[in-house]
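Bug report (template v2)

What were you trying to do?
Predict the complex of my protein with magnesium ion.

What happened?
Run completed; filing so the output is reviewed.

Input:
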Amino acid sequence: MSKGKSDGAEALAYLIGAVVAIAIYITIIIFVSAVAIYVLFPIGCVAFIGAVLFNYVKVLYEELVVGKGWADSPAGPEPAFKQYFFRKARYDYWEVVKKSALRNWAVLVWLKDWFFKLFQWNYILAFTFPLALGYIAVVAAGTTAGALAYLVFGLLHMAIVATCAGAAIAAAYTLRGVERLQMFIRHRSLKCPYRECHEKIALPYYMCPNPACGERHNKLLPGDYGVVKRQCKCGAWLPTLFLFGRNQLVSYCPSCDRQLNSSMGVSRNVHIPIIAGRSAGKSHYLAAAMMEIHRRADDGGLSVAFPEKQYEADYVQWKRYFESGNTVRPTQLKSPDAFLVNLNSGGEDCLLYVYDPAGELLQQTDTMRSQEFFYYADGIVFLIDPFSIPQVQGRLQKELNAAKLQIGPSEMAPQDAYANLLQTLQQQKVGRRSTKRLAVVLTKTDAINISNEIQQIAARQPPDKGGAQAAESSAVRAWLEKNGEGNLLRGIEGDFKSVSYFYCSPLGRVPDSGATPFVPAGVLKPFGWLLRSIVDFETGTPKPIAQTKTLAAPAYPLIQTPPGETVYGKIIAAMWALSVVSLVGGSLLFALWANTAGSDYAYASDYTTASSNSSGAYDSPRNPLSSSNSNNNAAPYNSNSAAFRSDTSVRNGAAALKKADNTVIYLAADTPLKVIEIRMPWYWVQTRDGAVGWIHGNDIYPLR
Ligand SMILES: Nc1nc2c(ncn2[C@@H]2O[C@H](COP(=O)(O)OP(=O)(O)OP(=O)(O)O)[C@@H](O)[C@H]2O)c(=O)[nH]1
Ligand SMILES: [Mg+2]
Ligand SMILES: [Zn+2]
Ligand SMILES: [Zn+2]
């Protein structure tokens, strides 16, 4: 019995204990939940966001500010590093995003480990499980907030990289377009000056300025390797635009792999071939023209530079021959197919290509056709050896036989030479009437008084209104006509739109055993006419040839930095930091502002309540200071209306509101209001647009 009694007491004690324990559990659960919701959740979220921010900043700093980020390497067809935003930027971005994610993951793992350390699967858990649940809830909320923050940081970073990349790509392709356009407009299409090649060069290839490297850059243009400069795999920097000195790099023809001169592509290029049959005097004419050009330069009327040593060497040799009165024998004239000289008479630099093809070529029109320079010739010097004209040969047979060795007359009649020239031009589809300028030049006029004959014709002519050149042109034309070349003249003038006639003597005298120097006469005039508006041989005030670099001139300066390293990572990091700071600062300011505004302005609905009026309608506006409200229920002054009026004479609302001219409008529930004074149940409020009145129910009742 006693056992049963004590059993019962014990059971009761256990029951009470159990009830107390359950009560404690429930209290703890409620307490922890409350704390979790109002204290731990916000703290947890802020802590997690802070941790994510810390991780992002730390990785950004380690990777992009002090570190070098993703290890770049030369990529693509060129021996160079891609421009940062064309390659490395996105790897750098992934590196930061990935590494900061790993760090965030590590934090979660650390929290998980702590969880299992704190809450083990044993009887204690029976007491601590509310804490465990709280822990899980806070971590879950924090993880959500942290993930959101990570997303925002990552997207912000991506937006910055994408924007910069877009700008870089746009800049690169704009500059490329500008460069192409400029080449097109300024007539700078390049042609290989070498005899066997003469290919049109879209873009030469350039050598790395680092002599230890010697890599070749095939497409040195603004683009994915760099906007204004690019980095060679050796670390040296190369400019991508001629504007920035690309022409100072050593460049080669992509067709024949021979070195090009540096000023090609910078100066205005003018191509002029000298056309005549064999032994008509082309080479002497070219040599004499160079003598004359240098005489002009010595007089201070012209700037001259040879873009390559090779041409200078030729010139020096010719000069020696001319000064000693020796003719330049064809064998000793290793005539480059194009002779290049850079000229300036005050305007822009002119790179003149003069072609002196061997006379034999004209005999074989199929070979001539392959001479591509006809395509891009700007003008042609058509040389006529007077002693190749059949009528002259007949007329001056005696004198000619005596001086045959000195004059070396061409065996090809001008008509035949011209026919072959025309055939070549037509085969190249130059058009019905060529727009190229044609200078018809009578040469060797020192011999057997030819120049005297022309001067006599000129003297008999009426003065020409077109000036000295027009007078000379018509005199030479008349002389040719007189000597049986009328057909040739008519042919020429039908085929070319722009023709002028000249006479000259490259040697100035008949070459004989005498050692007096040759003094050329009249050789520059045809060039002056062909180059008019570009080079002025008569009255120029020259500027130095800025762009010309002979081989002896300093090459592009070698600027070398560690390969593949850029400052862009640091810039991106700084931009990211700046945007995060402004994002956080901005939202804080906004919250502050919204909060301040909130304390000032509330919504109309916050102060309006359904009326207790038994009819269900709202109380009409009335004067709250009046004790009697019953006399103003007439429409429209009732039911959810707000009366706004401007009649300042009415101070006592109740009476005034009955006036027919009162405007009554609804006051929307979301109209912002500022409470100025409260006399329950009335509020003296002001709307944002400045209307002031009493409000009760849905009504605003303006008193002024
Ligand atoms: N009198 C005189 N003779 C000249 C003059 N210019 C050239 N000659 C003569 O003409 C010959 C041929 O001259 P080149 O200049 O070699 O002729 P080319 O047209 O270059 O000949 P190829 O190269 O064979 O096609 C020379 O040997 C000179 O004797 C000149 O101004 N006066
Ligand atoms: Mg020759
Ligand atoms: Zn290099
Ligand atoms: Zn070439």
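What did the reviewer find?
Residues 268-530 form a domain with the Rossmann fold fold (CATH 3.40.50.300). The longest helix spans residues 2-65.
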